[in-house]
TrEMBL record:
Keyword Secreted appears in the UniProt entry: no
GO molecular function, one term: 1-acylglycerol-3-phosphate O-acyltransferase activity
Gene that this sequence comes from: plsC
TM stretches of this protein: none
Residue intervals of the Phospholipid/glycerol acyltransferase domain: 35-146
EC number(s) from the headed UniProt entry: 2.3.1.-
EC category: transferase
GO BP terms: phosphatidic acid biosynthetic process
Keywords from the UniProt entry: Acyltransferase, Transferase
Superkingdom classification of source: Bacteria
Matches recorded under Pfam families: Acyltransferase
Protein name (database record): 1-acyl-sn-glycerol-3-phosphate acyltransferase
Length: 207
């Protein structure tokens, strides 16, 4: 499978560049049901380390439409890696419907960057909306390590910590209840960051 081949290749390259990745709590990933893997987005390197740490689990994910429009080769590669284009300025209903469909089919899991972009630290509501409709657990995950190509070459060690699953109750939820689960996810990110490095901070530079 193309996805597996690429992830194994990336795993090998990351090992050559930065050595063995520190991976904690991988046992929190379900093996008998589809799930959402939710992370804060800080760098283009995030998905590489997270996909490798969660392997052999397979994921689909959303990527900004601009990446698909750059050239045919990049479009082909992202789609082969189960990427779904999304218009960040006007995401539309498909931004929720497509992940829900994928999770209900149980052929793949779904990786989502709950902060939306690399320029914001706050969790958006899409993750919990998808989880409620798909009846899928949310597994928080945080990555720390090299955030730039320069840091990769400096052999800075990578860390990936998986958190405790967040289960939404069945049935309808109020806006306040959904916001509460968003905050629980945000707290999970903060707690995992603290476990990796109590002094960690990240400068989310605005565009």
């Amino acid at each position: 499978m193309f996805y597996n081949t690429v992830v194994r290749l990336v795993q090998f390259l990351l090992f050559l560049l930065t050595g063995k990745t520190d991976i904690q709590n991988r046992e929190n990933l379900p093996v008998d049901r589809a799930f959402i893997l939710a992370a804060p987005h800080r760098s283009w390197i995030d998905p590489l380390y997270i996909a490798v740490a969660a392997y052999p689990h397979t994921f689909a994910t959303m990527a900004k439409q601009e990446l698909f429009d750059r050239n045919r080769l990049l479009n082909w590669l992202i789609r082969k890696m189960n990427g779904i284009p999304v218009n960040r300025d006007n995401p539309g209903p498909s931004a929720i419907k497509q992940p829900v469909t994928i999770l209900k089919e149980r052929k793949m899991n779904f990786l989502i960057f709950s902060t939306g972009t690399r320029y914001d630290s706050q969790v958006k509501g899409g993750t919990t909306a998808i989880a409620r409709l798909a009846k899928a657990p949310i597994i928080p995950v945080v990555y720390q390590g090299p955030f730039t190509f320069k840091e990769l070459l400096m052999r800075k060690k990578g860390h990936v910590y998986f958190g405790t699953p967040i289960e939404l109750p069945p049935g309808r939820l109020t806006k306040e209840e959904m916001a509460g689960f968003d905050q629980e996810l945000q707290n999970s990110f903060d707690n995992l960051d603290h476990k990796i490095d109590p002094d960690f901070s990240f400068d989310y530079k605005k565009k």
